[in-house]
């Protein structure tokens, strides 16, 4: 039972981890990317279309990344260039993505009966037979590629690199960062695009590795959980990873407990990830500090230069 929960929990946690990594970079740069849910949803939808039309799961993955990147472009234009309210813009994009993908799914997938190419779990042989951790390691190739990508992004944007320092400067004090020569809006724009690309990849992972299809609102709040994971992780990489793992296991319990005969009300299981998220943020946010310029748009004229 523990092995099954761990394997399923890791499967749910990987899309959260990928999306949360992009969100962490975006928030460190000063942009609260509330449209993460919509980016994941459009990524999932587009990846399925790409996989079905091309017959290749790899092509579907790139379609998903492109869709997330496109929505990231819209978010960046609205919040960084036009300086619109970041929260309102994000929620509006989420609503648009939900309506658009629901309509598109009913238009394109109904009665089509097409098989969706996807990424299957790896057969690790004797390693997969190891107690507890063996089944958890049997994730898809895409899952391992995305975890590696997250590690690369974490290193490149760490506080020990010039890009990481520029990101933190843009998110802490945009005016002084501009005085020091940091291209604040370009850093923020690039950070939002990165978040969009990773969220699109996370949606593709969910659709092509975990479900092998697309259903209405299949992310079911995963994008919001990724945002909460960044907050619960106190805007640091390692605690954010721990938060995504906790949320992933909580989501896995929705399916694992009934499967083994544990009688728990369905409503309680459905609310479990969000209850854990609420408890995590309530206990940790008070002892942490968000980037000072988070949600604050920057206009270079405000520097007086």
UniProtKB/TrEMBL annotation:
UniProt keyword list: Cell membrane, Membrane, Transmembrane, Transmembrane helix
A single GO cellular-component term on record: plasma membrane
Compartments in which it is found: Cell membrane
Membrane-spanning intervals of the chain: 87-109, 136-156, 189-208, 214-232, 237-255, 267-286
Major localization class: membrane
Coiled coil: none
Kinase is among the record's keywords: no
Keyword flag Cell membrane: yes
GO molecular function: transmembrane transporter activity
Pfam families in UniProt: BPD_transp_2 (PF02653)
Source organism superkingdom: Bacteria
Topology of this chain in the membrane: Multi-pass membrane protein
Protein name: ABC transporter permease
Species whose genome carries this gene: Nocardioides cavernaquae
Biological classification of the source: Bacteria, Bacillati, Actinomycetota, Actinomycetes, Propionibacteriales
């Amino acid at each position: 039972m523990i092995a099954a929960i761990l394997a399923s929990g890791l499967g749910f946690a990987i899309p959260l981890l990928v999306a949360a990594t992009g969100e962490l970079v975006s928030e460190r740069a000063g942009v609260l990317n509330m449209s993460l849910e919509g980016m994941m949803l459009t990524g999932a939808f587009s990846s399925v279309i790409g996989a079905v039309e091309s017959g290749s799961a790899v092509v579907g993955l790139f379609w998903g990344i492109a869709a997330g990147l496109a929505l990231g472009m819209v978010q960046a234009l609205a919040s960084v260039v036009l300086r619109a309210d970041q929260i309102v813009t994000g929620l509006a994009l989420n609503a648009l993505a939900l309506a658009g993908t629901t309509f598109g799914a009913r238009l394109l997938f109904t009665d089509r009966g097409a098989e969706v190419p996807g990424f299957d779990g790896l057969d690790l042989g004797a390693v997969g037979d190891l107690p507890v951790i063996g089944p958890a390691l049997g994730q898809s190739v895409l899952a391992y590629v995305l975890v590696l990508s997250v590690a690369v992004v974490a290193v490149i944007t760490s506080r020990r690199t010039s890009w990481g320092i520029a990101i933190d400067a843009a998110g802490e004090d945009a005016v002084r960062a501009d005085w020091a020569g940091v291209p604040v809006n370009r850093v923020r724009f690039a950070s939002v695009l990165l978040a969009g690309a990773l969220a699109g990849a996370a949606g593709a992972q969910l659709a092509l590795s975990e479900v092998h299809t697309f259903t209405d609102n299949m992310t079911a709040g995963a994008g919001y959980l990724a945002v909460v994971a960044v907050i619960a992780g106190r805007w640091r990489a390692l605690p954010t990873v721990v938060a995504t793992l906790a949320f992933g296991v909580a989501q896995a319990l929705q399916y694992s407990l009934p499967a083994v005969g544990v009688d728990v009300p369905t409503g309680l299981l459905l609310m479990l990830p969000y209850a854990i998220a609420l408890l995590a943020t309530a206990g940790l946010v008070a002892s942490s500090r968000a980037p000072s310029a988070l949600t604050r748009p920057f206009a270079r004229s405000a520097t007086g230069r």
